[in-house]
Design goal:
Layout (H helix, E strand, L loop, with lengths): L1 H23 L4 E5 L8 E7 L2 E6 L5 E6 L5 E8 L7 E4 L7 E6 L10 E7 L5 E2 L4 E6 L6 E6 L6 E5 L5 E5 L10 E9 L5 E4 L5 E5 L3 E6 L5 E6 L6 E6 L5 E5 L5 E4 L4 H7 L29 H26 L1
Amino acid sequence: MVGRLLAVLVALPFLAGGVTAAVSADRGEVVLTFADPAVVESSGLVALDDLVVTVNDSGDSGRVFAVGPEGRTVGVTTFAESPTDVEALAPVATDSADEVWVGDIGDNAAARSSISVTRVPVTRGDRSGEYPTFELVYADGPRDAETLLVDPTTGRLHVVSKEIFGGTLYAAPQRLSADRPNVLEPVADALAVATDGAFWPDGRHLVVRGYGRAVVYEWPSMTAVADLDLPDQDQGEGIAVTADGRVLVSTEGQFTDVLEVPLPREVRQAVAPERPTSGADRGRPASAPAPVVEEPRALPLPLWLLLGGGAGVVVLLGLVAWAVRRR
């Protein structure tokens, strides 16, 4: 009897760890699946009206894919013959909803003297041309980056460096110059190993993702308000926020899915657009934003082993003492 109990107690930590992993590994809802075999390394994502826009990672020619709700490519814009390392997309913050910024900002060796962004039209149907391109340089030396952000209220470009021990958010000049390099100035710390980011449409929050998690920040304070677990993906390098505030993510690979990330209620409340002030409310102090309460996080397997093993020892000792007393 004691032997059976001991076997069960030893197995409990492993069972608990397995159940936790299954519960926490939420794939998210499939929004669409890329049907175009040419989309092989989705490394940037933008939601424009009823279209999803993406771009391949380094190694592809300079082209942007407009993808319809069914997952089929409905338009390709070719903007360059051989870019260096395209890694990111961001919407252009204007009344026009058919343009994106393309970020040729990758630099794995942190050796490029400059990077660049190109303002590219994206519509249904194929097109090509030479489009406005702007050179960027970091104030503190070259950096690898895969995250391009645009403040929707000002149109200002930002880049987040991809670094193991913590990224840096850089701001471009408010007005970009086509005649000389535009200096990126460091303004805040950001998520380590950042692979993409996006603003909410009202400009009050932004999200920066890595391979397994994302952080939601208030803007412009860059105060972290939520930590999001992302669906399991082979190499997640795309994130977008839709006009109605939904968060979408993509990953490299052929025929991969674009997924919607489920947001906890507290996060939805935090990023919800502010309601316009009515005449009756004018002059009253603004109500405090709803607090973000971090949801319980699944314990990693090693901790389950530790806790489960400790509990097993305690219970086992109790059983042995009880058996001795019964003799």
